[in-house]
TrEMBL record:
Regions of compositional bias (Acidic residues) in chain numbering: 94-108
Domain NIF system FeS cluster assembly NifU C-terminal: 19-75
SUPFAM superfamilies for the chain: Fe-S cluster assembly (FSCA) domain-like
Name of the molecule in the record: NIF system FeS cluster assembly NifU C-terminal domain-containing protein
Region annotation Disordered: where it falls in the sequence: 1-20, 89-108
A GO molecular function held by the record: iron-sulfur cluster binding
GO BP of this protein: iron-sulfur cluster assembly
Amino acid sequence: MSTQGLERQTRNYLSNNVPQIQQHGGNFEIREVDEEAGQVTVAIGGACSGCGIAPMTMKAIEHRLPESVDGVSEVKVVRAGGPRAAVMPSKIDEMDEMEEYEDYDPPF
């Protein structure tokens, strides 16, 4: 499988199984694909950068993407920063550490 194939599969998975990202004003970007290692890095941004459930969404993607896409063994999800970020980084760090996110099981 080519890197483009793995990237395309990842994009299809995110578009089809995590529609909340786009429906809620967020976006995702596949930042890096290492076909040989089976590693994919996905950035979520827009409204996701300040969303209270973004850490739960990130964990779900990290867990479920390898189960759903052939050739993926490791997924890293990061928040996009810069002008597309919707909230200050200090608030994002606080949200990532909230205990409420530990057992969340989103519907996708």
